[in-house]
Design goal:
Helix content: 40-55%
Shape: globular
Order of helices and strands: EEHEHHHHHHHHEHHHHHEHEHHEEH
Strand order of the largest sheet: 4-3-5-2-1-6
Number of helices: 18
GO biological process, one term: Wnt signaling pathway
Structural class: alpha/beta
GO molecular function, one term: metal ion binding
Protein name: Metalloprotease TIKI
Subcellular location: Cell membrane; Membrane
Strand content: 5-15%
Mean pLDDT: 76
EC number: 3.4.-.-
Distance between the termini: 104 Å
């Protein structure tokens, strides 16, 4: 029999303040595999929080576009130009094998949703010859039967982002795309070739039935559902890099594998923990009356130098919240207006917005997103961006209305008061700027304001001229 939720450990930590805020550890697997095992108090903490923050904004087309750009080789280069001849041909053969097997790997449920093997292959592996070798290595590592069968269902992080939209919560991200992307591009060429070669060897051995991956997705799910807070595999899920260290490697290759593992642990875990922790602190200080729910990869809360350690060093009390422990029952959160941050500390990474209520929270383009660091093909990206632009155009058309005569007038008696802030959207990021002085509360923020002033001045001048003329006649 399955254990009760109250008996399991949890991936929830409470930041003791008034109102309380929360850390929640996620994993990058279909949410349906873990949702029933997540304790009720974790779900309640999510529902009661005002603002939900993730590592990246998974629903923003800009995020996907930036990740795609980061993965590509410099203009004009192809993978065939940079890889050793034998590795390139092994890679090509393996991808041909995956494409051939994909129809057999897919489930009836996926086909029922309208997912076809060719479409799914192109969504994941399309344009592979233009990608940098390190990203091809990660792509190959994710093209397994188990991973293919899970496509079409949002991973836990994405599901929480969609739920936050549905509940009309404010959302944000504590990292910039470049901060997740650039460390992977920082490996030297010999290390990348070693990693790609090892990944291909693992996949070729799997095909031959002579190899078993030490940490499978099933192992990850089992450890997560049982609330195992000490498992090393969460670090590999968080960094999304396979483990190359094994006893069969020759001594010089084992050194290379340990160097790669150490590099990624430093760059993708420890450095990011420090940066994320500082930004969480900034948000808590700037919005002391708001309750936050920070959903990050579980590996960011385990081991040494965690995000929790950063907060504790700053004087915050953070305690683990077991499954059966009740959380503070605060008032349900109200939808906030234009939440944003203008402080230099995090004006570059905060992504907050008043979110519309989606009709279909689980959109196909989002469901197909693999791990955070593996956006889909450029074709799918363009499809998302077209949809985004179409929605934006409809919104603009809806806002337009017939101009009234009163639109031309500006109330100058209100111009001495402090105006409200003006909200702008730049590259998907929302900023708040103060209105320039001289524009009153009732000024219209549109391009014809200056012409309205000119018309008003012309009318005043005409009236003054007429008054002078009448005085002369008298």
């Amino acid at each position: 029999p399955l254990p009760q939720q109250s008996e399991l450990n949890s991936f929830l930590w409470t930041i003791k303040r008034d109102p309380p805020s929360y850390f929640f550890g996620t994993i990058h697997v279909p949410y349906t595999r873990v949702w029933d095992f997540i304790p009720e108090n974790s779900k309640r903490a999510f529902q009661q929080s005002h603002i939900v923050y993730f590592e990246l904004d998974l629903t923003d087309p800009y995020t996907i576009s930036a990740l795609t750009s980061c993965q590509l080789l410099p203009q004009g280069e192809n993978l065939q130009d940079v890889l050793p001849h034998d590795i390139y041909h092994r890679l090509k053969r393996h991808l041909e094998y995956v494409k051939l097997m994909m129809p057999l790997w897919m489930t009836p449920d996926q086909r029922g949703k309208g997912l076809y093997a060719d479409y799914l292959f192109n969504a994941i592996a399309g344009n592979w010859e233009r990608k940098r070798p390190v990203w091809v290595m990660l792509m190959v590592n994710s093209l397994t039967e188990v991973d293919i069968k899970s496509r079409g269902v949002p991973v836990l992080d994405l599901y929480l982002a969609q739920e936050a939209e549905r509940l009309r919560k404010q959302t944000g991200a504590v990292e910039k795309v470049e901060e997740q992307c650039h460390p992977l591009n920082g490996l030297n060429f010999s290390q990348v070739i070693f990693a790609l070669n090892q990944t291909l060897l693992q996949q070729e051995s799997l095909r031959a039935g002579s190899f078993q991956i030490p940490y499978t997705t099933e192992d990850l799910i089992k450890h997560y559902n049982c609330g195992d807070l000490n498992s090393i595999i969460f670090n590999h899920d968080t960094s999304q890099v396979p483990n190359f260290i094994n006893a069969t490697l020759p001594p010089h290759e084992r050194v290379t594998a340990q160097e790669i593992d150490s590099y990624f642990r430093q760059e993708l875990i420890y450095k990011r923990n420090e940066r994320m922790g500082r930004r969480v602190k900034d948000l808590l200080e700037e919005y002391p009356d708001k309750s936050f729910f920070f959903a990050f990869g579980a590996g960011h809360f385990m081991g040494n130098n965690t995000v929790i350690d950063v907060l504790r060093r700053e004087g915050y009390e953070v305690e683990h919240t077991p499954a059966g422990q009740a959380i503070n029952n605060g008032k349900p959160p109200k939808t906030l207006l234009a939440f944003s941050s203008t402080s230099p500390a995090h004006s570059t990474y905060v992504v907050s917005q008043e979110l519309p209520l989606p009709l279909h929270p689980h959109k196909e383009e989002e469901e197909l997103l693999p791990h955070l660091l593996l956006p889909d093909s450029i074709d799918l990206l363009e499809k998302v961006e077209r949809k985004y632009k179409k929605k934006k155009k409809k919104k603009q058309q809806k806002k337009q209305r017939l101009r009234q005569f009163n639109d031309l007038w500006v109330r100058i008696e209100e111009s001495t008061t402090d105006p409200p802030p003006r909200i702008r959207i730049i590259n998907g990021y929302i900023t708040v700027e103060p209105q320039p002085r001289g524009h009153g509360r009732f000024s219209h923020a549109r391009t014809d304001t200056s012409s309205a002033h000119q018309l008003f001045q012309s009318l005043i001048l005409s009236l003054l001229t007429l008054a002078l003329h009448m005085l002369r006649l008298h």
